[in-house]
C-alpha cells in the first residue's frame, strides 16, 4: 500500500485541480455581467472541491478527513449543477458542458469510493513536523 505524504500526490486532488482549470477557462468566456454572479459561484465551487481535499488531508484524523471529503464531493456536485445553468443560459455549448460534467462525474465517483477507505482504516502513520500527516492510502478506481 503506497504512503502518501502530500495531498498533491492524491489522484482526487489532481483531478480536482484539472477541473479548476477547465472552469476558469470556460468562465473567462462568460458575459461581463456574470463576473460576480455565476462565474464567481462556479469558480468558488471548483476551488472548494480541490481545497477541501487538501484541508482534510492535512487535518490528521480520519473523521475530519472524511468530513472534508464529503464537503469536497458536495462542492463538486455544485460545479456540475452550475455547468447546467451555464448551458441553459447559452454561456457554454453542450460539448463544453459535457467536457466539464464528465470529469466531475468521474471525480464524484472516485471521491465516494475514496471516502470509504478511511471509514474502514484507522489512521496509520504519524504527523511529520515538516509535511504534516502521513497516510497509507490505496485510492480505488472509479
Explain what the structure shows.
This protein is mostly helical. The chain has one domain (3-136): Up-down Bundle (de novo design (two linked rop proteins)), CATH 1.20.1440. Helix content is 65%, strand content 3%. The protein is built from four helices and two strands, in the order E-H-H-H-H-E. It has a two-stranded antiparallel ribbon with strand order 1-2. The longest helix has 27 residues, at 62-88. The chain is elongated, with a radius of gyration of 16 Å. The model is unreliable at 124-129 (pLDDT under 50).
Write the layout of secondary structure elements.
Elements: E1 3-4, H1 11-27, H2 38-59, H3 62-88, H4 94-120, E2 135-136
Antiparallel strand pairs: 1-2
Helix pairs in contact: 1-2, 1-4, 2-3, 3-4
Rg from alpha-carbon coordinates: 16 Å
**How many H/I helices?**
4
- N- to C-terminal distance: 18 Å
Backbone shape: elongated
Let me know the number of strands: 2
Secondary-structure-derived class: mainly alpha
The major β-sheet equals: 2 strands, antiparallel
Helix fraction bin: 55-70%
CATH architecture term = Up-down Bundle
Q: Please tell me the overall pLDDT.
A: 87
Please name the CATH topology: de novo design (two linked rop proteins)
In the CATH scheme, the class would be: Mainly Alpha
Classified in CATH, the superfamily is 23S rRNA-intervening sequence
Helix/strand order, N-terminal first: EHHHHE
Number of domains: 1
Assess the beta-strand content as a share of residues. Answer: under 5%
